[in-house]
Write a structure and sequence with these properties.
This protein is mostly helical and about 100 residues long. The protein has one domain. The chain contains 5 helices and 2 strands, in the order ββααααα. The protein has a two-stranded antiparallel ribbon. A hairpin with a 2-residue loop joins strand 1 (about 1-5) and strand 2 (about 10). The chain is globular, with a radius of gyration of 13 Å.
């Protein structure tokens, strides 16, 4: 499926996750975050960069793993991405939905 964001056509799956990380840009992340009423702060960017790094290294993601990452604790992770931290942060980061998400 295709979706237009910031004047660019990106490819997404049926749940709206990018299917090609190479299409991701910070501007696209900002627009995706707006869909969840999130304004990205430096803390959000730290988490997004961590998620992308772990994805590129084929590391399976879970809320527990992120809480132990020393990047963000679980309480702050929920505060940053309140409507479903791992699902939403993964979508904004341009990576596939983690297997640990229902």
């Amino acid at each position: 499926m295709e979706k237009q964001i910031c004047g660019k056509v990106i490819h997404v799956n049926e749940e709206g996750y990018l299917t090609d990380l190479n299409e991701w840009t910070p501007e696209i992340a900002e627009e995706l975050a707006k869909e969840y009423d999130i304004t990205l702060s430096p803390r959000h960017w730290e988490v997004l960069k961590y998620l992308q790094s772990e994805h590129k290294n084929n590391v399976p993601l879970s809320i527990r793993k992120i809480g132990k990452s020393n990047v963000v604790d679980i309480k702050e992770f929920y505060a940053l991405f309140p409507q479903g931290p791992l699902k939403i942060s993964s979508k904004i980061a341009g990576i596939p939905k983690p297997a640990s998400c229902l």
